[in-house]
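User: Show me a protein chain along with its predicted structure.
Assistant: Here is one chain, sequence first, then structure tokens.
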Amino acid sequence: MKIAIFGMGYVGCTAAACISSQGHIVVGIDVSTKKVDAINAGISPIHEPGIDELLATARAEGRLSAITEVGNHLDDADIAIVCVGTPSGPDGAHNMSYIVQVTRAIANAVKPDRTTPLTVAYRSTMRPGTTDQIIGPIFRSALGDAADKVVELVYNPEFLREATAIEDYFHPPKIVLGTVDGTPSVNMEALHHGINAPIFHVGIREAEITKFVDNTWHAVKVAFANEIGRICQNLDISAKKVHEIFVSDTKLNISPYYTRPGGAFGGSCLPKDVRALQHIAADVGAHAHLVDSLMRTNDAHKHHQFTYVTQHLKPGAKVLLVGLAFKAETDDLRESPAVDMARKLLETGYDLDVYDPALTPDNLIGQNLGYAYAYLPTINSLLVDKETAETGDYDLVITTNRLAKTLSLKSGTIVDVSAIA
């Protein structure tokens, strides 16, 4: 099949690499010439293990290309996949401007005399009802009565974790395919052929809310664990032992993955989707007080960690922060708790170095670039290499993820904020 993918960020780039590796022809479409040029050179515009190799192979074998304008590429395409960003707006709701822009571009590019429908599958996280209330009307406005005949609308949420995105793409926990009437999409089933996972054929709105439910639940687990961790720490109780007891109950407590007291939640998904679900709940009068508390308790935990690690440290002390991205093996700084930690350390007057081998400031693009320089405008001068990190004379070393295991640290008190003991 020929697949057009709109948006070459983490989700779109991963999809392009994985889908083209299955033998499909993929055209990536993005307004960023930097991303397009990188892909056409066989280089990934994102830092994600394994993506470079897949993109380079697909590009060399002629299965992958990238462009900035859709042109006539939809004429012979079977599927268009939309992976553009839906960042948080001022009120917490998702900013849908990119969805609207891309939908208009697709609607204007689709020929009303197509003999087979173009499957337009959305993977961007968006409010339930978006397909009915925004996307569908745009297609009907552009194509009139032909819209329902030449376009098949699908919502297909992704379940990718950064740093394990390729593994997650080919081995997802589930496949959710939402269609207007809840019936299977032939093209989307073909796209997922060979991927062994439970498939849910549901209505559009059931599919649209899936990521909100999943991501908010993950956020609930992290916040709950950290509240318990703070209580235990302040009462001189071993949170590690309490956690050991808690997760032994796999019958009722489900999974230990998000329930270990440690780092605050961050990244590009959980914070923005929690804010959006807060907005939705308030909008419909659901009074979701636990959800309302999540961002506040997460901010409280970030402040708690800062005061905890610096309680015996005087301003001016030399500090090494190991890991700035929200997760090891990625360069995603968006809403990373470590960025907040770095900002607080600098504002309080500490002499800060940062070690994160996945980060190269010149390679940061899009929302990731904007977030990095908005909160850490001196990021270029903060980053140090491995040798400096290992040999520097530091009063305190703060580790935020498993990157610390790759270093032979020789100085300073080491505090791991990703796990409260």
